[in-house]
Amino acid sequence: MSRRLFVLLPASGTALRWRTQGEDGRTLASGLLVDDAEAQIDEDTRVTAIVPGSAVSLHWVELAAASAAQAAAAARHLAADFVAAPIADQHVAAAETADAEGRRLIGIVDKTVMEGWLAALAHHKLDPDEMVPAPLLLPVVEDAVSTLRAGDMLLVRAPDLALETEPALAEMLIGGRPLRPILRDILDLPTYPETPLNLRQGAFRKAAARAVSRADIRRMALLAAGIVAAWLGADLALALRHHFAANALEAEMNTLAAKALPGVAITDPALQLQQRYAASASGGGFTGMAASLFGALQASGTIRLESLRYEPTGAMRATLIAPMGATVDPVKQRMAADGLNLVEGASRSGDNGQRIDVEVSRL
């Protein structure tokens, strides 16, 4: 990735400072993420979240491990010696490789703290590629200790030392070693070392990106059908949201829209999918069946849609909500006029009426 977006999570407060750095180290843009502001990034941007070193305990240990899984297990066992809190409540990350002396860097942080950081980033639509304790971004020099003042705290970095603490305590830990003060902001360094430790491991590992599959396209077609069908009228997006009702389906629509429109900020998934898949409205298949069902439900006035799904056989299944004692015959008759057969399945009573399972196929 040619660009890097650095996002600094504060030890306190809610505003997130950020800076985009070009391949040559120049600052391309910078600013603050506050309230509901969303970060604008492209696919070529590597996102690095800089987390407070004061919340992460960093240690170099000897790990006799042949694989990453073995290293993680061994690191977790050794981490219990460094923290007073129950190890079950701690997230432990281990460096992928050992240093010249055969030691590996491990980081220990409370799981709830990790969850809070990720939630704060997600609030601004950020899913970082890596999460790095701030001291690890300072340069390492053999004959001195790099230091950087950050508010009331001091970042410290040496080949065998990395921490963020009060200056008085840092001075005790540094001892008599010479210092190399860095008189710049952590977000304004011209270069950064290769990340020695990424906290996004184990349960907090970033999910791998998945390509849009044929099944996803069919699911998107089902969602798009309700948008592109003429019966929805002028306010297409609003009508679709009202008809689907369930928040889960709207969340799915957001996810699928993001996958269908890579690199595009998703602000109104219904409208954006409408524009993307408008051509599929006249193509029959799932879109045609879904559009017919939506039209029949709209005409009934009393029967609503709860869920909708497709089958590999080409059939479409749905669960409808109808008043107690009502039948789906009006829906069935209207869909028959479109060349579709609706077969009524099991029904069960509930708080809001009866739920009726149906299957739709072509006559």
TrEMBL record:
NCBIfam families: typeII_sec_gspL (TIGR01709). It is found in: Cell inner membrane. GO terms for biological process: protein secretion by the type II secretion system. It comes from Sphingosinicella microcystinivorans. Residues 18-160 form the GspL cytoplasmic actin-ATPase-like domain. Its main location: membrane. Pfam families: GspL_C, T2SSL. GO terms for cellular component: Gram-negative-bacterium-type cell wall; plasma membrane; type II protein secretion system complex. Keywords: Cell inner membrane, Cell membrane, Membrane, Protein transport, Transmembrane, Transmembrane helix, Transport. Belongs to the GSP L family. The lineage of its organism: Bacteria, Pseudomonadati, Pseudomonadota, Alphaproteobacteria, Sphingomonadales. Gene3D superfamilies: 3.30.420.380. It is a single-pass membrane protein. Residues 354-363 have a biased composition (Basic and acidic residues). It comes from the Bacteria. The keyword Metal-binding does not apply. This is Type II secretion system protein L (GspL). Residues 218-351 form the GspL periplasmic domain. SUPFAM superfamilies: Actin-like ATPase domain. Residues 344-363 are annotated as: Disordered. InterPro entries: ATPase_NBD, GspL_cyto_dom, GspL_pp_dom, T2SS_protein-GspL.
